[in-house]
Amino acid sequence: MKILAILAAAIVVVAGASAVVLLNNDDDDKGYYSSNSDCRLQVLGNADKNDYLDDNDVTKIKEMISSNTYDQMADANNDGKVDETDLDLVQKMINLKKSNSGKADSEKESMTVKYITVNNDIRDAVYPVKKLIVVNTQGISKK
């Protein structure tokens, strides 16, 4: 049971850390993109799938709304459709990042975002992540 608890804590930590990286990257780092979805946090609303939430995602969602197309990554609220609500949520995420810049943790506003787990489940995470716990699972074996 301890191993399962440690593993569960590790998954939460990785998800939270990935959300911080995804939502807090500077625009200077736009050259990075990971196509390995097993090892990165996929935050819904990242419509252009480049690991950054920015105006490009807003543009992509607007295109999908006008063409009446669907992609799960653009469906920020995970309701099965891409619409104005998704557009508003992504814009809120972008604005929150800007609004929280330079503030102490106690002054930062937060919001819930949705992400896809490694098991393809949709889960909630609170952004910004204020505390992280790092757990090393290397060397753990099942007996």
Tell how many strands the DSSP assignment holds: 3
Structural class: alpha+beta
Helix fraction, binned, reads: 25-40%
Termini separation comes to 12 Å
> Reading side by side through the largest sheet, how are the strands ordered?
1-2-3
Biggest sheet layout: 3 strands, antiparallel
Strand content: 5-15%
Order of helices and strands: HEHHEE
Let me know the average pLDDT.
79
Poorly predicted spans: 26-34
Q: How big is the Rg?
A: 16 Å
- The tally of helices reads 3
- How would you sum up the global shape? flat
What this model shows, in words?
It contains 3 helices and 3 strands. It is flat and about 50 Å long. The protein has helices at 2-24, 55-67, 84-100, and strands at residues 42-43, 111-116, 122-127. A 3-stranded antiparallel beta sheet has the order 1-2-3, covered by helices on one side.
How are the SSEs ordered, and which strands pair?
Blueprint: H1 2-24, E1 42-43, H2 55-67, H3 84-100, E2 111-116, E3 122-127
Offer a few descriptive terms.
143 residues; alpha+beta; 3-stranded antiparallel sheet; 3 helices
What can be said about this structure in brief?
The chain is of the alpha+beta class and 143 residues long. Helices cover 37% and strands 10% of the residues. A three-stranded antiparallel sheet has the order 1-2-3, with helices on one face.
